[in-house]
Design brief:
With 275 residues, this protein is α+β, with helices and mostly antiparallel strands. 35% of the residues lie in helices and 11% in strands. The chain has helices at 2-28, 35-43, 56-65, 78-89, 123-128, 146-150, 176-180, 207-213, 223-227, 252-256, 265-270; strands at 98-102, 156-158, 164-166, 186-190, 196-198, 233-236, 239-242, 262-264.
């Protein structure tokens, strides 16, 4: 009996001493927190996607409070979060929503296959091995879904055509898929931007080879550049480069493209593009 009482007394004594010590060290090593950081953090969605360029929401909140990150820097949170953060900082923001667009139409129907792939089903792995998946086009989408794995919002799925498809109603424009694509085929573009956009990244100057590799590839004919009355299109290494300050979204380049590489971005956003 005495042993039990002694054990209890010693246990309570140790607990008391440890509690006092914890309280003491908490005060000694207390690090004051910036209330602005806490308020900004409360506004954020907590996705920790890294789309802002900082290590998670805590990193963005700290950078934003310090003036190192813009109030509308949280792409995952969108317009509403940007407005809330702006209210905390006392600044007016005009946030822009971004969406992801795949610059490739090398589907199973269009792209020529070169064989079977028995390695790890990862675009990055296939790219590292120099195999580039199973397609003849060295610039095309490998199709193993690294972008799908990178998306925290379930906005990308590999379709039956072998290409990733973006659900723009779920896409936050965080850019995780952009960073995950070893082929650099996914673009982060302003949702409200209008004008044509090329859906091909093949830079092979040999037109005949391009058509053998992919029926939907850009054949470098330059018709889009010649047909643009505003001078908004220039070929950059064979790929149409659009100057959106000049583009009027007339659609002449789209209708004139023989392989339908160019589409209007507003049609992509509306889900009405063909092919």
């Amino acid at each position: 009996m005495n042993t039990v009482l002694l054990t209890l007394i010693v246990s309570f004594a140790l607990a008391f001493v440890l509690g006092v010590l914890l309280g003491f060290f908490k005060k000694v090593f207390f690090v004051p927190t910036d209330p602005t950081v806490e308020k900004i953090r409360e506004c954020l969605p907590g996705a920790n996607c890294g789309g802002c360029g900082y290590p998670g929401c805590d990193g963005f909140a700290s950078a934003c409070a310090a003036g190192k990150a813009p109030a509308d820097g949280c792409s995952a949170g969108g317009v509403e979060v940007a407005k809330k953060v702006g209210e905390v900082l006392g600044v007016k923001v005009s946030p822009v929503k971004y969406v992801a667009v795949l610059a490739c139409r090398g589907s199973k129907e269009h792209a020529q296959m070169k064989g079977f792939y028995n390695g790890v089903n990862s675009c990055a792995a296939a790219k590292t091995l120099g195999i580039n998946g199973t397609k003849m086009c060295a610039w095309g989408c490998i199709g193993f879904g690294d972008c799908v794995e990178a998306c925290s919002f379930d906005a990308i799925k590999i379709g039956e055509d072998g290409l990733p498809h973006v659900d723009l109603s779920l896409c936050t424009g965080c850019g995780a898929c952009v960073r995950a694509c070893p082929q650099h085929l996914i673009q982060k573009v302003p949702e409200e931007r209008k004008g044509s956009i090329p859906l091909c990244s093949n830079r092979n100057p040999n037109k005949a080879v391009i058509l053998k590799q992919c029926k939907a590839g850009c054949i470098k004919c330059g018709k889009c550049e010649r047909s643009c009355k505003e001078g908004a299109i220039k070929l950059d290494k064979g790929i149409p480069l659009i100057d959106y300050t000049k583009c009027t979204s007339c659609g002449d380049c789209v209708t004139g493209c023989p392989t339908k590489v160019l589409v209007l971005q507003e049609d992509i956003v509306a889900g009405t593009q063909v092919g």
